[in-house]
Sequence to fold (221 residues):
Amino acid sequence: AGGSAANTVCSLRRMGLLTGYVGAVGEDEAADTLVEGLGDPMYQGLVRRGRSGRTVIAVGPDGDRSITVFPNVNDSLSPSDVDHILLARARIVHLSAFVGDLPLEAQVEAVRRLPKDITLSLDPGAMYALRGVEGIAPLLERADVVLPGEGELIMMTGARDRDEGAEMLMDMGAGTVMVKMGSQGIHTYWREGEYHLFAQPVPVAGDSVGAGDVADAGFLA
Fold:
């Protein structure tokens, strides 16, 4: 999992689902706070060392975001750190993006060893979208559900529009592609059809930080 996945796991836990987390966190106060929100320690496959990864998000008056990532210990996650026995106990395994190559190698190995009856979901985020479909092909080929933003989908696939991009991902193996479109809602594709869920207006929305991660949780729940 990555930082985005931690937001999704926390949201699922607040919905009352049994959750766990596999990843690397620091030996610091920030990690202590994070671990408390991830669920029962019995279902944590955490490696603790160094400094926790951090993301600084600056939100402008118009809601636009500028994101700066300091991966720190996140980029040290290796294939040998992953608790494959814990993952094999899950019904759903949800992945999100890392900055470095080593954690991606860990995810690829985890996916290779994951039992076929476990649902795999992937939120590629901007970082994996930048790698293109070739750069994360082993994840996309195994993923049952892919959860990109609309811009990420176009960037990742090189498609002309979201319809073509979703079709490309389904051709690679995805059974469902849920495209997040901000204030326009969510458009979901599957092999038998598609469906658009319109966003509900709210009186005040300070910003959209984490909204996509929570949308992932709602879909997976």
Notes: Residues 101-113 form the longest helix (13 residues). The beta strands are 21-25, 44-48, 54-59, 65-70, 92-96, 119-123, 145-146, 176-180, 186-190, 193-197.
